[in-house]
């Protein structure tokens, strides 16, 4: 298996780790990629980003009302 952040994962494909990565574990190494996209262009005056651990993605929400989503967001 492979160790990542103190947790042992089995050999093969790992669909989602606890910290939101998709990995492949082999006998010699482990390759991982994030499964979340990072917001880069949004209204920084009115909005803020919050990491949503359940969905493994960033929510872009209104600063004055975090229950409301911001739109016109570009991600990478």
UniProtKB/TrEMBL annotation:
Protein name as it appears in the record: MSMB protein
Annotated coiled-coil segments of the chain: none
Domain of life the protein comes from: Eukaryota
Keywords, alphabetical: Disulfide bond, Secreted
One Pfam family in the UniProt entry: PSP94
Subcellular location: Secreted
Family, per entry: Belongs to the beta-microseminoprotein family.
Gene3D superfamilies: 2.20.25.590, Complement Module, domain 1
Predominant subcellular localization, coarse grouping: secreted
GO CC aspect terms: extracellular region
Statement: the UniProt record of this protein carries the keyword Acetylation: no
Keyword flag Secreted: yes
Species assigned in the record: Pachyramphus minor
């Amino acid at each position: 298996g492979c160790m990542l952040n103190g947790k042992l994962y089995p050999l093969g494909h790992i669909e989602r780790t606890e910290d939101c990565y998709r990995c492949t574990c082999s006998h010699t190494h482990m390759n991982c990629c994030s499964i979340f996209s990072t917001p880069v262009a949004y209204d920084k005056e009115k909005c803020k980003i919050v990491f949503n651990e359940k969905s493994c993605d960033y929510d872009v929400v209104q600063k004055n009302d975090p229950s409301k989503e911001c739109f016109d967001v570009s991600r990478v």
